[in-house]
Design brief:
mainly alpha; two-stranded antiparallel sheet; 2 strands; globular
Length: 134
């Protein structure tokens, strides 16, 4: 089931979200000082390309550095990546097949806004990537 959901996701929105995150990562890596932000963008690009079977969790070790990184991320890339999720969700919501994917897309907005202090883990018992655990 995950493979089918991932293929539908890839065709309808995953590829475009991957391109948005990859573009953010390339821009961040060009500027030497923002390479850590580029790494986060590439991590989210990979997640947005094939998300089912993985989930996002908060790291227990995240501290003040993550908060500062998230604030800078929000200013540099987070807001327009969140907008790309909203636009993609609106386009998906037009069809009945796309409604669950639109809802899932909206649930990815917090990760697009605040990626630092989170990690992507493989799941066996959760069908989708859209539940954020503690």
């Amino acid at each position: 089931m995950r493979t089918i959901l991932n293929i539908i996701w890839l065709i309808l929105s995953g590829f475009w979200l991957f391109l948005a995150y990859a573009l953010a990562g390339i821009i961040m890596c060009i500027l030497i000082i923002t390479i850590p932000f580029g790494v986060q963008a590439f991590k989210l690009a990979k997640f947005s390309l094939w998300p089912f079977g993985r989930t996002v969790t908060k790291k227990d070790s995240a501290g003040a550095g993550s908060v500062i990184g998230n604030i800078i991320w929000l200013v540099l890339a987070g807001w327009w990546l969140a907008i790309s999720h909203i636009v993609t969700a609106a386009a998906l919501a037009i069809t009945i097949i796309g409604i669950p994917l639109a809802i899932a897309n909206l649930k990815l907005i917090p990760v697009a806004l605040w990626p630092f202090g989170r990690e992507i883990i493989e799941t066996d018992d959760i069908v989708g990537p859209f539940t954020v655990a503690n």
